[in-house]
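Run log, item B.
One chain of 195 residues. Sequence copied directly from the ordering sheet:
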Amino acid sequence: AADGNGGVPVGGPIDPLSTGYEDLNGLYPYNPGKAAPLFHYFSASYLGTINFLVPQGEGGVGRELSKQISSVSGFKVNLEEVDQQTMRKRISEGKYDLALTTSNRTLDEGMFAESGSPFVLQDARAQQAWADAVHSKNANEYEANARAYAREVSNNAAAHWLYARKSIMAVKSNVSGYTKNMTDQLLPLQSVVVK
């Protein structure tokens, strides 16, 4: 389902408009009934309180997610609404358990495999799959390698609540040659033709 901002769920690190995208939402479908016994295996008293960071202005979303987490898991959630600088610092230092964040970069698919990223997934297969994608010799090879990387990341549940904005293009019927993907980030005009 779309969110209030027109975003759509994406099951991994690649958005629907990018090469290599595959709908992986079905890998771990939302199922509170199945999740509850798994949470009870590692009881809330054993693991303690979940420290959940949300950006300033997203407290309402954070409170709703906190309620959902607590109702299914029994965990106590310590919700902190913080500014961007504090968010970056806490994530960089690893002083959180769960964080609601945004990424505005167009080519950020590799953030779960690139060293230096605060979100790097310590998984050799994911890192190798991303390295294979980066060093692909052609577009078809890149697409296959990017898909393998996204599946590996998604299998490790690192990227299940990502959203991508919907971009909308409004053009006259006499205009052609424009791109349709990622137009909120870049709109190349070299091929645009007006009849």
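Observations after the first pass:
- The radius of gyration is 19 Å.
- The chain has a mean pLDDT of 81.
Flagged for discussion on Thursday.
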